[in-house]
Design a protein that fits this description.
12 helices, 12 strands, DNA-binding, alpha/beta, homodimer
DNA sequence: TTCGAAATTGTGAGCGTTCACATGGAGGGT
DNA sequence: ACCCTCCATGTGAACGCTCACAATTTCGAA
């Protein structure tokens, strides 16, 4: 056995369990037991094996382990645009939590966010042997896709809104949006306008919902909402429509990038923030504190989000079907300089 | 064999090669041949096998394949802060290129960027069975780490500067920085100040180098450089020192975030950009076009960078040691509204 | 018709683990 | 002294695939 690997050979392949066993003078099974901290190994035997491992720089072959156990200790993450701050931070949170739990992470980015591509990404990861998948699929279509998966494969969705069919981890968008809106109302603004995200994004819709709810609760009029696409460009474009409206004194913008675009447009139009107009964003990207003016916004703790959703996923994998189906993390309003009490009129 | 899996069983495990073989009435080897498009299969046999595969929804077990071939068709990426625009975009570029080449991608984020953690991350990925690793390690220390790896494991570094010991893909920072500086000089500024990135980042140093070189070439005085840490905050802080200097009319800032912070400080100090001061950034983050004013900056094509470095890595894996050792992608100066000809004095 | 080479298909041995079980020895109660 | 149990260790068979080769078929040319 392994006759081809003589000591004269230049490049010896890395040591395997049998090599360790031989050197330590035990069977491969005993090596395996030592590897897994089995209590049924005599201390001196264990020591001998351990020393052989060190001597040969033995690393267990995880691929072989995966083959026989059916577990790879690897998770998959399918995500949309990891260039965006939110998804990127969530991914980071997941990765760190996974690492701490002893799992590796494989990723699969979607180029377009639709049902077939979400399904394809998941099954690609699955074929790769991952034990479970977390889907950062903020789109409605993405969520839909999850419904049609074999239910015995552990999947959890992030930010996919309140849908009972799949376990989920999410930031409470409604609460965040309501807090932003209420903050503006409390400052004395008669009502609050809203630059929304794309209608097919769950998060966008929930922010709209929170905004509406806060307005209604305060019996404030509900202005028509303006639809953007998360980019600074769209905030800039929408700024024009906003400027055509009379009496706009407060705007809740669905994310910080769009808020930046809006700020830019207002600046060009000679409107001063927050003197003439108050603005609240959403996300608290690292740059938000350095906008002109520093942006009041709603912070989402993406790292925590990643941790929580990993927790749910691991519970699933470990086979506790009764485990938490839903983890919600609370957003936080960060007040900076883009909001002020309404100007005396 | 497989007697335990009768048709009466509720949850049948997914089909394996033997199942397909049996259904098609051939040997497992023939199934394997069909799977790999071997020419030595009669068309009708192939058709029969294919149909059996479809019928059983057969998916080859990649883990088993990996075990026997020693290849997992998976790549590892170790990166630092995937929350930053640069690394995130590079990661995305790599992932897409890998996907197109039929490879999966596993990631491992570093919490801190030092030698032991880079080494640990690589060997973790390696133990996970990846065929090669790309290291997005912009830190000097990171590059150093690579020198001490077994040379038979394919590794390529991104943005790790000109070091011959490891193949590398990089954006030409020196050229980009020089272009930015020259642009300012051409506008009539006597000299150009520089807010640099951290000294232990290769990229930061190369930008300093490009800036110096352009200044010297134009026989312009070389002002003392100011050190930041890539954050908007540091740009803001450094802005104060800059304001204390007389005669500053042009600043080349090492990245867009710091430029944003600087812009903010200048605005607070009542200095108008570009009338009083011209600013150039670096990276061209998506928000840069919506800063106040829209930022002139140097664009790096991270997607291309990812593609190129993947190309180098795959060549390594496929065992062409003569393959390109170095891929350089050119940066591009994007002129917007933060730069203008020097004011008449 | 007959032979041989090429085309097609099958066989069995791994890849490096873990799992289920077998084996042998030490210790404890009677 | 004896039997039974528990502890420590070993044995051989999977896991699902590919590789090297062997076996069988097919078909054209002599």
């Amino acid at each position: 056995m392994r006759a081809s690997r003589t000591s004269s050979e230049k490049k010896r392949r890395s040591a395997v369990m049998a090599d360790v066993a031989q050197l330590a003078g035990v069977s491969h099974q005993t090596v395996s037991r030592v590897l897994h901290d089995s209590p049924h190994v005599r201390p001196d035997t264990r020591e001998r094996v351990l020393s052989a491992m060190r001597q040969l720089d033995y690393r267990p072959n995880t691929v072989a382990q995966a083959l026989v156990t059916g577990r790879s200790r690897t998770l998959g993450v399918v995500s949309f645009d990891t260039t965006l701050y939110g998804p990127a931070s969530t991914l980071l949170g997941i990765e760190q939590a996974a690492h701490d739990a002893g799992y590796g992470v494989s990723i699969s980015s979607l180029r377009s966010l639709n049902r077939p591509s979400v399904i394809a990404a998941i099954s690609r990861l699955r074929d790769q042997g991952v034990d479970g998948v977390v889907v950062i699929a903020p789109l409605r279509a993405g969520v839909e896709a999850l419904r049609h998966l074999r239910p015995d494969f552990p999947v959890v969705a992030v930010e996919a809104g309140p849908d009972a069919s799949i376990p989920v981890a999410t930031v409470d968008q409604v609460v965040g949006a309501a807090a932003a809106t209420r903050h503006l109302l409390d400052l004395g603004h008669r009502t609050v306008w809203h630059l929304a995200g794309p209608a097919d994004w769950k998060e966008a819709e929930e922010r709209v919902e929170g905004w509406r709810r806060a307005l209604r609760q305060a019996s404030a009029p509900v202005p028509a909402l303006l639809r953007g696409d998360w980019t600074a460009r769209s905030g800039y474009e929408l700024g024009r429509s906003l400027l055509e409206q009379p009496d706009v004194t407060a705007v809740f913008v669905a994310n910080d990038q769009m808020a930046l675009g809006l700020l830019r447009r207002l600046h060009e139009a000679g409107r001063e923030v927050p003197r003439d107009l108050s603005i609240v964003g959403f996300d608290d990207i690292p740059e938000a504190a350095y906008f002109t003016p520093p942006l009041t916004t709603v912070r989402q703790d993406f790292a925590e989000l990643g941790r929580r959703c990993l927790h749910v996923l691991l519970a699933r994998i470990e086979g506790e079907p009764s485990a938490a189906e839903r983890a919600v993390v609370a957003p936080e309003l960060i007040v900076r300089a883009s909001t002020a009490a309404v100007a005396a009129r």
